[in-house]
From TrEMBL:
Signal peptide residue numbers: none
Region (Disordered): 513-532
UniProt-recorded name of the protein: Hydrogenase maturation protein
Designated gene of the protein: hoxX
Formyl transferase N-terminal domain ranges (all copies): 8-115
PANTHER family noted in UniProt: HYDROGENASE MATURATION FACTOR HOXX
Gene3D superfamilies: 2-enoyl-CoA Hydratase, Chain A, domain 1, 3.40.50.12230
TM helices/strands, residue ranges: none
Pfam families on file: ECH_1, Formyl_trans_C, Formyl_trans_N
Residue span(s) of domain Formyl transferase C-terminal: 146-224
Length: 532
């Protein structure tokens, strides 16, 4: 595997490895001619046969397509015009572009790549040239002029579709409340709003803007970059608009949902057949101090209910990626906010670890990383969708790690495997995670089916006679383990990092948030070990 940011690493890797086949699943620049002209190079394009151009999914979502596809092409001199090795169709449910990319499109891409590689390995397959008429679907980069929202005439459905087609990049450029902002994310609100375009409410860090026939919740904003100014980054909308929302009411959604209440919020709770489901969905999987605290309050409410099984997660897309680096970067004191955020994450993980009166299941519909993985590992069972990917490490951000990882990770996979996961800092597929013992169950289903699959499995788990015996045994085991030393030792290391303004974490965080390269000379610290 070669992570390539420029042409030279590609050339260097090809010269070093002398591969029979090069597969490029994600490209921002073309493969150099001197590579594809010598080696068979397969490119994964997120569109059906004949679709070309850099904004494939943007156009599909904007036009309301309900099905799409992924094509594996052989690289040549013309972008997306090479011979076809494989093509797989996929549905496009009404969600954001980035969500589709990580789920339905990713599933189709894996299937198409495996099919193409198998065909190449057979030595007997001849790829199909694209038909002359296919090039008619070569479309340009999707412009902001088409994304622009006309608040005086666009319906809620139109506004949501425009926002979804721009999620998570580049966003939809808009001007309001004295500034220019890129809008990120969009969820419909059926209740009547106010004057179209006005901000009429806030909730969970999001703003609600009225449309001609309802309203739309917008969770994140990114200020437009000033000429010659530093790169900007996404923030919770209310944080980005701090000081500009005087008189706008906060309208929290009820935590305990009924079947008729489908308004948007980050956290929701429901019960089915005596089983509890605490769902949450945080943008990009990042969890700020405030989000951790809200989820902890919801978790404590869920634990007050008379159920024997509590499922945490579900839904679709990210489970959690740990602390919210964007919110930290925007803070007046990023070191202090880092410390507050990691303690809030620890409080949440501790609550899950010390729940002894029920079985807790972490249900991961999508990816998880760093502290988000450790939040899942605090549960009694970890279930994930087959397409989920895990990054159970902190090293690439220069962190030692917290969230009780020195207890939960070795307990799950053993000390040697825990060391290796932290040292190598490589992604882990759901299959590999199950083989390692990192998770307990892989659920092979479409993203839209994950919630119902988890619901059926959890209901059966609650009905098993052995479940009460497991709860009793769990309490006995927890009473024998003192978790305090794990948290204290981890936080000593983390506080040292956060309090040192010259530690690589701060430069790595700045570069990550602003999507820039770290400053020259910034070195990632050596891997941590739970035995340190």
């Amino acid at each position: 595997m070669q992570l390539a940011h420029e042409e030279d690493p590609v050339r260097e890797a090809v010269r070093r490895e002398c591969p029979d086949l090069v597969v490029a699943p994600y490209l921002k620049t073309a493969i150099p001619r001197d590579v594809w002209s010598v080696h068979t190079c397969l490119v994964v394009h997120p569109g059906p046969v004949g679709d070309r151009g850099p904004s494939s999914l943007d156009w599909a979502v904007h036009e309301g397509a309900d099905s799409w596809g992924v094509t594996v092409l052989q690289a040549n001199a013309e972008m997306d015009a090479g011979d076809v090795w494989a093509s797989v169709a996929c549905p496009l449910p009404p969600v954001g572009k980035s969500d589709l990319y990580r789920n339905e499109v990713s599933d189709a891409a894996v299937e198409a790549v495996l099919l193409a590689v198998g065909r190449f390995a057979s030595g007997t397959y001849t790829p199909s040239p694209q038909a002359p008429g296919d090039g008619e679907r070569c479309r340009p980069l999707f412009p902001q002029s088409l994304r622009r929202i006309d608040w005086q005439s666009d319906s809620t459905a139109t506004v949501v579709r425009k926002l979804r087609a721009a999620d998570s990049q580049p966003g939809v450029l808009d001007e309001f409340l004295g500034g220019e902002w890129f809008l990120h994310g969009g969820y419909p609100e059926s209740r009547p709003g106010g004057r179209p375009g006005d901000v009429v409410a806030t909730r969970d860090g999001a703003i609600c803007r009225a449309t001609t026939d309802g309203a739309v919740w917008i969770p994140e904003l990114r200020p437009r970059r000033a000429p010659g100014g530093p790169a900007t980054f996404k923030l919770p909308a209310t944080s980005a608009l701090a000081g500009r929302l005087s008189g706008v009411p906060e309208r929290p959604a009820p935590l305990h949902r009924t079947g008729d209440d489908n308004t948007w919020s980050e956290i929701g709770y429901r019960e089915e057949a005596g089983t509890a489901f605490l769902s949450f969905s945080f943008r990009g999987g990042a969890m700020s101090t405030a989000q951790c605290q809200r989820l902890l309050r919801a978790y404590r409410f869920a634990c007050s209910r008379p159920t024997s099984v509590l499922v945490v997660g579900g839904g679709r897309d990210f489970f959690s990626n740990g602390i919210h680096l964007n919110v930290i970067e925007a803070a007046a004191d990023p070191g202090a906010e880092s410390w507050a955020n990691i303690n809030a994450m620890d409080d949440l993980v501790e609550a899950v670890l010390t729940s002894t009166d029920r079985l807790v299941v972490a249900a991961l519909a999508g990816n998880a990383a760093a502290g988000g993985v450790m939040l899942a590992l605090a549960a009694d069972e970890v279930w994930c969708r087959a397409g989920a990917v895990f990054n159970p490490h902190y090293r690439l951000m220069g962190l030692y790690g917290s969230e009780y990882w020195t207890y939960t990770l070795p307990r799950r996979v053993g000390a040697a495997a825990a060391d290796r996961l932290m040292r190598d800092a490589l992604p882990v597929s759901s299959t590999a995670a199950h083989r390692l013992g990192l998770i307990d169950r892989v659920i092979p289903c479409a993203p839209q089916s994950f919630d119902s699959e988890v619901g059926a499995l959890a209901t059966r788990l609650a009905a098993l006679p052995a479940t009460q015996s497991r709860i009793h045994a769990k309490k006995s085991e927890r009473d024998r383990v003192d978790l305090t030393p794990y948290r204290e030792a981890e936080l000593v290391r983390m506080h040292r990092i956060f309090a040192d303004p010259h530690h690589p974490y701060h430069e790595l965080r700045r570069a990550f948030v602003r999507k820039e390269r770290p400053a020259s000379g910034t070195a990632v610290p050596p891997p941590p070990s739970p035995r340190d």
